[in-house]
Amino acid sequence: MTEKRAVVLLSGGLDSTTVLAIARSEGYVPYALSFRYGQRHSVELEAARRVAEVQGVARHVVADIDLRVFGGSALTDDIDVPHHESADDLGEEIPVTYVPARNTVFLSFALAWAETLGASDVFIGVNALDYSGYPDCRPEYISAFEQMANLATKAGVEGRQHLRIHAPLIELTKAQIIQQGLALGVDYSLTHSCYEPDAAGHACGTCASCLLRSRGFAEIGMEDPALASSAEPVV
User: Fold this and answer.
1) CATH architecture for residues 5-219
2) What is the pTM for the complete model shown?
3) Which of its termini does the chain have fewer beta carbons within 10 Å around, N or C?
């Protein structure tokens, strides 16, 4: 039987780690794709490596692209990462941690790898509920990219590939995402989501990513393992 391959975008964070577990549970052989794109929180790549190893991916590729040449984001430029006391303080405007066109860039790489693998499935951990207002995390964006992707490759034009972009978390709250991951055996202590960790890799606890994540754990009566101990680096 031909194996059912899928490219899974893996940042090493909570959402992408959950999506990797979902892809495996649905019978896909996962090929994990991470990016070293000039992000200030590059410690996440060590988390991605550990997650990929524990979940047993067929291959884990880290692609090097430097989005610092464009800047325009607190994650890739000399712009301060915002910090807040509570997730309730997060506004509805698109925050400065938005990286211009990042998911479009990442999905384009995934599309290219999927074609060479003979895969028709790409998984991404975008979320349109408990998220920070990013435009490339919305259902209409994912739908539009999928339509474009099926016009963009030789395999698609020749009818050998009909690419599907899977975004299984897109309509879930952070708490629901965590519950689904726990049911699939995800070890969230291996993950890293912080936008501005310290030199030892500890999560700050006050950036938007940390706050949304910790609120999700709190809603199901758990403590976020990323913040459970300040003595150990969260990688």
Assistant:
1) 3-Layer(aba) Sandwich (3.40)
2) 0.91
3) N
